[in-house]
Fold this protein.
Amino acid sequence: MTADRLPDGWRRRTCDEVIRAYAGIARLPTSPGERRVAAALAERLRGLGYRAGVEPVRATSSYALPIGLLSAAGLAAGLLSRYGVPSHGGGSYSGGSYGGARRAAARWGAAVVAAAASAAIADDVAGGSRWFRRVALPHRRAHNVVAYGGDPTATRTVVVLAHHDAAPSGVIFDQRVLRWVARHFPAVIAAAKENPPTWWPVILGPALVAVGAASGDRRLGGLGTAITAANLAFLADIGRRPAVPGANDNLSGVAALVCVARALQREPVSGLRVVLLSAGAEEALQEGIRGFARRHFPDLGPGTCFVNLESVGSGRLALLEGEGPVLMRDYPEPFRRFVAECARDIGVPLLRGLRSRNSTDSEVPRRHGYPVATIVSLDHDKLITHYHLDSDVPDNVDLDSVVSAAELAEAVIRRLAREEPAP
């Protein structure tokens, strides 16, 4: 029986079942829940005939901890620069030339610390070397699910990517202000091509502290200190929260991946190797896919491309043009065009022209030069519904949107099996 002859509505039923099966499990990065879902998903894929397993990878458990510590360093630098170094008596500031030298040393020390904190935050959120995480934080284990299908003798590979961990919530993710803007200024939303750069203020706070301390500008340093204090409060709020259900972000992607697996099991492809990857610790800023890259990228070969299914249950599918929390970088255009043509061929509407100021697992293969297509979904306000909120439950997922994402990923795979994208 071919995929086209499967019972009507099987994709919708499969998506609903997968999302509901795992949404009740708390799945913070590197948590026992993340490991439990990884094991269940690998067993599900093995039941469909895939060679599937769980691969532990070295990871940190949250972005809130490293970036919070760096923000705390920036805040301490701002306070030191603003209030100086107290004398040994503790009640007044040192006077005379010696006191002036101490204040100057404190000011320049604060500038160096704040500048280093700002640079390290930018490195971390942009997916750089993450030296601060490596040297300052304990590491745990994230759990990737890797399954192999398609033609094992093929020289070309497609990796279908999702992630099964879930994010914590936080006050910063409240969407009411954005919804208000959408209701009262619809033209602004219609014209928007990017979401707000939420990481810029986190980098800016310590940077202003550094400039203010180096220049002696107390107002600039005070502004940077205030921004950094607010950022630290938001990060502390995120760090103390449990996981949200994560039905849309990103069990919708996992469900679409399972649908693809089932369709390819019923009607296999030849001439193309298929890797199904559900990464862990994406919500710690792509720790799972970084582990997969270290282990598998050397063996994938130059003919590899990635299809990332990320939060595809919001209603309207979109093909992102690029992403970048710090600097915007587009994905390779030929593969984006190839995926858009596949969507047109099967009649799946696909928004174009949008870019994300958040980061996804797609950034890691893009950095390594692989063609990447990131399929997301947005609602009528161009927002991911219930993003990082406790209301991200199965009943709030648009299953038709998830099914369309699965159908599009399958169409891309089948066309890739027949032809290579234009360079």
User: Anything to note?
Assistant: The chain has two domains: 3-60+140-169+243-418, 65-136+196-239. The chain has 14 helices and ten strands. The radius of gyration is 24 Å. The chain has a mean pLDDT of 92.
